[in-house]
Design a protein that fits this description.
The chain is of the alpha+beta class and about 425 residues long. Helix content is about 30%, strand content about 20%.
Length: about 425
């Protein structure tokens, strides 16, 4: 049985270390403070008995749990990221532990009137009677993805302490900078040496995902012409007005706040403007590759049409692909999803197989030759002060890791005639 106290102690120890990543940095890791958790994790992996614990120059951590069976078993891996999102501060996290949650609103911070309420966050209702870990309303929590790290380390420790549980060779990997889209960029798949892996980076208990968005970024730059407003007739070109034309020409209902499921979107997430120059930062998302390419084409066509309308190049649009739907790489090896699904069912967890409305390290890793579905880590309301995680979900995720290891060894067992 996985120890509840161990899970709580390990997880809270991780989240109190600030590992916020920085999209404006060009280094890997993007922030030096991520090294603080890197070194702690490496020492912890050694202390629980893991082999081949290694940190590379870019802060990627890898380690091995050797096989304890004689027959040949595929080497599998489990991966999580240790950075937290720059969307909200991860400094000075003060986790609060709510024992036997009673289903009522939780006051995170009375002074700031921060309340985590099931009236708004309805998922809370499924965790009545359980132990929740929340923020104090001033930071994010960091369950994304320190819950995943906690579960992987705890599972390895449990397997080491219980050699009667049979498994093949298991590799674990922890990555920086996933939250800024660079978590897998420098991951050494060949050195990792697994046939397939699982990221422990999903949300609520039961989630099992092997589809994600195709993703691109777009930077739209509009050039205007500043002239004294008193003498501007026929001369001034206001970049902000042209930017407004561009924004309003895209489908208003194809934005994150109007879409769900498999629906894609255009998302304007940042803008900076003046008469002389205005810049729009978009992300483009769609599960369907054809629709994804069409979205990119729409932005380019709109750019061309506005340039034609103004008789010169007032707009330039730079579109860069970020990651692709991993379904294409997972479908040929669906047995790895089936193994995870069987592990959940064996533990009386209802699998929730759905598409990710986002991306994970696994999407990039799958295209780098390491098929990598995503499994729940238990947290909710990521990237903000209302983030929380049920301890029981982390325990179940830890058990799923152990069960996947067992089933992989069982499935590789030579059949007797």
């Amino acid at each position: 049985m996985i120890s509840k106290d161990t899970i709580i102690q390990r997880f809270t120890g991780y989240v109190t270390i600030d590992t916020e990543s920085d999209p404006n940095s060009e280094t890997t890791p993007s922030t030096a403070k991520q090294w603080n958790l890197v070194h702690k994790l490496a020492e912890e992996l050694k202390s629980i008995g893991m082999s081949d614990v290694h940190i590379d120059a870019n802060a990627y951590i890898m380690a091995t749990l050797p096989s304890n069976v004689e027959h040949e078993v595929p080497t599998i891996g489990f991966i999580s990221h240790f950075d937290t999102s720059p969307d909200f501060t991860g400094a000075h996290v003060k986790p609060q532990i709510i024992e036997r949650y009673d289903g009522k609103p939780i006051v995170l911070n009375a002074a700031q009137d921060m309340v985590l309420s099931p009236d708004y966050f309805e998922d809370l209702k499924q965790y009545v009677g359980q132990t929740l870990i929340t923020t104090d309303g001033t930071t994010l929590l960091g369950a994304d993805d320190k819950a995943g790290i906690c579960e992987i380390v705890s599972a390895m420790e449990y397997l080491i302490q219980h050699p009667e549980l049979k498994h093949g060779t298991i590799r674990v990997g922890f990555t920086p900078d996933e939250e800024i889209g660079r978590g897998a960029h420098k991951f050494d798949v060949e050195a990792f040496g697994a046939e397939w892996a699982y990221t422990m980076d999903g949300s609520q208990i039961g989630e099992l995902e092997y589809e994600n968005f195709n993703a691109a970024s777009a930077v739209v730059t509009i050039k205007g012409k500043i002239v004294h407003p008193g003498y501007a007739k026929g001369k001034m070109v206001n970049a902000m007005y042209i930017a407004t034309e561009f924004i309003n020409s895209l489908p208003r209902i194809e934005t994150p706040e109007h879409t769900d499921g498999y629906q894609g979107f255009f998302h304007l997430h940042d803008m900076k403007g003046s008469v002389e120059e205005t810049t729009l930062h978009y992300i483009i998302r769609d599960h369907d590759k054809g629709h994804f390419e069409a979205r990119k084409a729409v932005m380019q066509k709109l750019t061309d049409e506005l340039n034609s309308q103004y008789g010169r190049e007032v707009i330039s649009t730079e579109i860069k692909d970020q990651y692709f739907n991993m379904r294409e790489k997972i479908e040929p090896v669906m047995h790895i999803v089936a193994t995870a699904e069987a592990a959940m069912k064996a533990l009386h967890i209802k699998p929730l197989i759905k598409a990710i409305r986002g991306g994970t390290d696994g999407s990039q890793l799958s295209y780098m030759g390491l098929p990598c579905p995503n499994i729940f880590a238990g947290g909710h309301n990521f990237h903000g002060p209302y983030e929380y995680v049920p301890v029981e979900s982390m325990i179940k995720a830890t058990e799923v890791i152990c069960k996947i290891a067992e089933l992989t060894a069982e499935n590789a067992q030579p059949k007797t005639v």
